[in-house]
Protein backbone atom coordinates (compact mmCIF):
# COMPACT_ATOMS: atom_id res chain seq x y z
CA UNK A 1 0.00 0.00 0.00
CA UNK A 2 2.88 2.30 0.86
CA UNK A 3 4.47 1.71 -2.54
CA UNK A 4 1.22 2.55 -4.34
CA UNK A 5 0.81 5.86 -2.51
CA UNK A 6 4.46 6.79 -3.13
CA UNK A 7 4.05 5.86 -6.81
CA UNK A 8 0.91 7.99 -7.14
CA UNK A 9 2.61 10.96 -5.48
CA UNK A 10 5.60 10.60 -7.81
CA UNK A 11 3.29 10.42 -10.84
CA UNK A 12 1.42 13.55 -9.74
CA UNK A 13 4.69 15.39 -9.13
CA UNK A 14 6.03 14.45 -12.57
CA UNK A 15 2.83 15.22 -14.53
CA UNK A 16 1.92 18.28 -12.44
CA UNK A 17 4.73 20.26 -14.03
CA UNK A 18 3.61 19.26 -17.55
CA UNK A 19 -0.02 20.13 -16.96
CA UNK A 20 0.85 23.77 -16.38
CA UNK A 21 2.45 23.93 -19.84
CA UNK A 22 -0.80 23.03 -21.59
CA UNK A 23 -2.99 25.98 -20.63
CA UNK A 24 -6.22 26.43 -22.49
CA UNK A 25 -6.53 29.93 -23.91
CA UNK A 26 -10.27 30.32 -24.41
CA UNK A 27 -12.08 33.66 -24.51
CA UNK A 28 -15.81 33.71 -23.96
CA UNK A 29 -17.71 36.94 -24.59
CA UNK A 30 -21.31 37.30 -23.49
CA UNK A 31 -23.29 40.37 -24.54
CA UNK A 32 -26.92 40.47 -23.50
CA UNK A 33 -29.55 42.01 -25.73
CA UNK A 34 -27.44 42.93 -28.77
CA UNK A 35 -25.71 40.91 -31.48
CA UNK A 36 -22.21 41.93 -32.51
CA UNK A 37 -20.46 40.83 -35.70
CA UNK A 38 -16.86 40.75 -36.90
CA UNK A 39 -17.70 42.49 -40.17
CA UNK A 40 -20.21 45.12 -41.22
CA UNK A 41 -23.47 43.40 -42.17
CA UNK A 42 -25.19 46.34 -43.88
CA UNK A 43 -25.38 50.13 -44.23
CA UNK A 44 -27.28 50.57 -40.95
CA UNK A 45 -24.54 48.94 -38.82
CA UNK A 46 -22.12 50.89 -36.62
CA UNK A 47 -18.88 49.86 -34.98
CA UNK A 48 -18.60 49.64 -31.17
CA UNK A 49 -14.99 49.64 -29.97
CA UNK A 50 -14.05 46.35 -28.31
CA UNK A 51 -17.24 44.55 -29.35
CA UNK A 52 -17.77 44.83 -33.09
CA UNK A 53 -20.52 45.80 -35.55
CA UNK A 54 -24.14 46.13 -34.41
CA UNK A 55 -27.42 47.32 -35.95
CA UNK A 56 -27.75 50.98 -34.98
CA UNK A 57 -31.47 51.62 -35.31
CA UNK A 58 -32.70 48.50 -33.52
CA UNK A 59 -33.68 50.49 -30.46
CA UNK A 60 -35.27 53.62 -31.80
CA UNK A 61 -37.86 55.41 -29.74
CA UNK A 62 -41.58 55.07 -30.22
CA UNK A 63 -43.21 57.29 -32.80
CA UNK A 64 -45.43 59.99 -31.37
CA UNK A 65 -49.22 59.82 -31.35
CA UNK A 66 -49.35 62.68 -33.87
CA UNK A 67 -46.98 60.86 -36.24
CA UNK A 68 -49.11 57.72 -36.00
CA UNK A 69 -52.24 59.74 -36.76
CA UNK A 70 -50.54 61.18 -39.88
CA UNK A 71 -49.57 57.67 -40.98
CA UNK A 72 -53.23 56.62 -40.73
CA UNK A 73 -54.28 59.69 -42.80
CA UNK A 74 -51.55 59.00 -45.37
CA UNK A 75 -53.02 55.52 -45.90
CA UNK A 76 -56.31 56.99 -47.13
CA UNK A 77 -58.30 57.16 -43.89
CA UNK A 78 -60.39 60.25 -43.02
CA UNK A 79 -61.95 61.60 -39.82
CA UNK A 80 -59.19 60.02 -37.74
CA UNK A 81 -59.76 60.19 -33.98
CA UNK A 82 -57.44 58.87 -31.28
CA UNK A 83 -58.75 56.10 -29.09
CA UNK A 84 -55.52 55.15 -27.26
CA UNK A 85 -51.87 56.15 -27.63
CA UNK A 86 -50.06 54.04 -25.05
CA UNK A 87 -47.95 50.88 -25.16
CA UNK A 88 -46.90 48.94 -28.25
CA UNK A 89 -49.99 49.62 -30.31
CA UNK A 90 -51.78 52.92 -30.88
CA UNK A 91 -55.50 52.67 -31.66
CA UNK A 92 -57.50 55.03 -33.86
CA UNK A 93 -61.05 55.16 -35.18
CA UNK A 94 -61.15 56.29 -38.81
CA UNK A 95 -63.34 56.30 -41.92
CA UNK A 96 -62.51 54.76 -45.28
CA UNK A 97 -64.97 54.40 -48.18
CA UNK A 98 -67.77 55.53 -45.85
CA UNK A 99 -67.10 52.80 -43.25
CA UNK A 100 -65.82 53.47 -39.72
CA UNK A 101 -63.21 51.04 -38.47
CA UNK A 102 -60.51 50.54 -35.88
CA UNK A 103 -56.97 51.11 -37.10
CA UNK A 104 -53.93 49.92 -35.14
CA UNK A 105 -50.43 51.40 -35.55
CA UNK A 106 -47.30 49.71 -34.22
CA UNK A 107 -45.63 52.33 -32.00
CA UNK A 108 -42.11 51.21 -32.97
CA UNK A 109 -42.34 50.56 -36.70
CA UNK A 110 -45.36 52.63 -37.76
CA UNK A 111 -46.94 49.67 -39.57
CA UNK A 112 -50.72 49.66 -39.89
CA UNK A 113 -53.34 46.97 -39.34
CA UNK A 114 -57.12 47.15 -39.33
CA UNK A 115 -59.41 45.74 -36.71
Itemize the secondary structure elements and their pairings.
Blueprint: H1 2-19, E1 45-48, E2 52-55, H2 65-74, E3 78-84, E4 89-96, E5 99-106, E6 112-114
Antiparallel strand pairs: 1-2, 3-4, 4-5, 5-6
Overall description:
The protein has 115 residues and is an alpha+beta fold. The chain has 2 domains: 23-59, no CATH class; 65-114. The protein has helices at residues 2-19, 65-74; strands at residues 45-48, 52-55, 78-84, 89-96, 99-106, 112-114. Strands 3-4-5-6 form a 4-stranded antiparallel sheet, with helices on one face. A two-stranded antiparallel sheet has the order 1-2. The relative contact order is 0.10. The model has no long low-confidence stretch (mean pLDDT 79).
Describe the structure using short key phrases.
2 domains, two-stranded antiparallel sheet, 30% strand, alpha+beta, rod-shaped, 115 residues, single chain, 2 helices, 24% helix
Secondary-structure element order, N to C: HEEHEEEE
Radius of gyration: 31 Å
Average pLDDT level: 79
Instruction: Indicate the percent of residues in helices.
Output: 10-25%
The outline comes out as: rod-shaped
Main sheet specs: 4 strands, antiparallel
- How are the strands ordered across the major sheet? 3-4-5-6
By DSSP (H or I, 4+ residues per run), the number of helices equals 2
Separation, N- and C-terminal Cα atoms: 83 Å
How many independent structural domains?
2
Strand content: 25-35%
Number of strands: 6
Q: What structural category do the secondary elements indicate?
A: alpha+beta
Query: Which parts are unreliable, with pLDDT below 50 for 5 consecutive residues or more?
Result: none
Amino acid sequence: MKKIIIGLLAAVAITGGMASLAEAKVKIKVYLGESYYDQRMGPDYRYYEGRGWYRYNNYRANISCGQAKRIVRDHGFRDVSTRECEGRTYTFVAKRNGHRMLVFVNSRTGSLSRG
